[in-house]
């Protein structure tokens, strides 16, 4: 994802307002290597700017997705995650705590897949599911991690 000042310029170029709330969101997402939900971003933004609305968070995230600055992911049922890494990559998902990590898989375009007759593939998403090292070590007794409200997960 581009730096906050470049996002501000890009927003203005397409006629969107650059509010202090959006600037906070740009800063939180910049160089973020996680896959936060809108709710976790809202929690982190609220710590910086009390009163920021969840609606503003969702609208800004949707605008960033439309601009190609974020990817919206549906990796777990009923929960969207947002990925600031828009490079070609795939994901690991922990079935216990919900942690999502980026992975890079070589040779995906060379996979031999049967049953694609009459279908034109636009993208390929590989998701590896299992249990992360933290959960395997038992340090996550409840199966969930306590989120840091200052850092979207």
Summarize the structure.
The protein is of the alpha+beta class and 153 residues long. The protein contains five helices and five strands, in the order ααααβββββα.
Describe this structure in words.
The model is unreliable at 140-152 (pLDDT under 50). The protein has helices spanning 4-13, 20-29, 38-48, 54-66, 133-136, and strands at 71-76, 79-83, 90-94, 100-103, 127-130. Strand 1 (71-76) and strand 2 (79-83) form a beta hairpin. It starts with a helix and ends in a 17-residue tail after the last helix. The strands form two sheets. It has a three-stranded mixed β-sheet, with no helix packed on it. A two-stranded antiparallel ribbon has the order 1-2. The chain is of the alpha+beta class and 153 residues long. It contains five helices and five strands, in the order H-H-H-H-E-E-E-E-E-H. Helix 2 (20-29) packs across helix 3 and helix 3 (38-48) packs across helix 4. 25% of the residues are buried.
| Spatial order of the strands forming the largest sheet | 4-3-5
> Main β-sheet, in a few words?
3 strands, mixed
Mean pLDDT: 88
Number of helices: 5
- How much strand content do the residues show? 15-25%
Percent helix, as a range, is 25-40%
Q: Any idea what the radius of gyration is?
A: 17 Å
Rounded to the nearest angstrom, the distance between the terminal CA atoms is 16 Å
Specify the structural class.
alpha+beta
Shape: globular
Q: Could you spell the SSE succession in H and E letters?
A: HHHHEEEEEH
Residue stretches low in confidence (pLDDT < 50, at least 5 long) are: 140-152
Number of beta-strand segments: 5
């Amino acid at each position: 994802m581009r730096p906050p000042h470049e996002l501000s310029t890009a927003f203005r170029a397409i006629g969107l307002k650059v509010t202090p709330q959006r600037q906070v969101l740009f800063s939180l997402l910049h160089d973020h290597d996680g896959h936060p939900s809108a709710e976790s971003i809202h929690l982190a933004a609220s710590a910086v700017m009390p009163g920021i609305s969840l609606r503003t968070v969702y609208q800004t995230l949707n605008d960033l997705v439309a601009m190609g600055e974020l990817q919206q992911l549906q990796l777990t049922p009923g929960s969207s995650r947002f990925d600031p890494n828009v490079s070609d990559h795939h994901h690991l998902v922990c079935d216990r705590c919900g942690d999502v990590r980026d992975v890079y898989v070589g040779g995906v375009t060379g996979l031999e897949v049967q049953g694609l007759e009459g279908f034109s593939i636009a993208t390929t998403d590989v998701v590896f599911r299992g249990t992360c090292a933290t959960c395997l070590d038992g340090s996550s007794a409840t199966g969930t991690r306590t989120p840091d409200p200052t850092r979207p997960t």
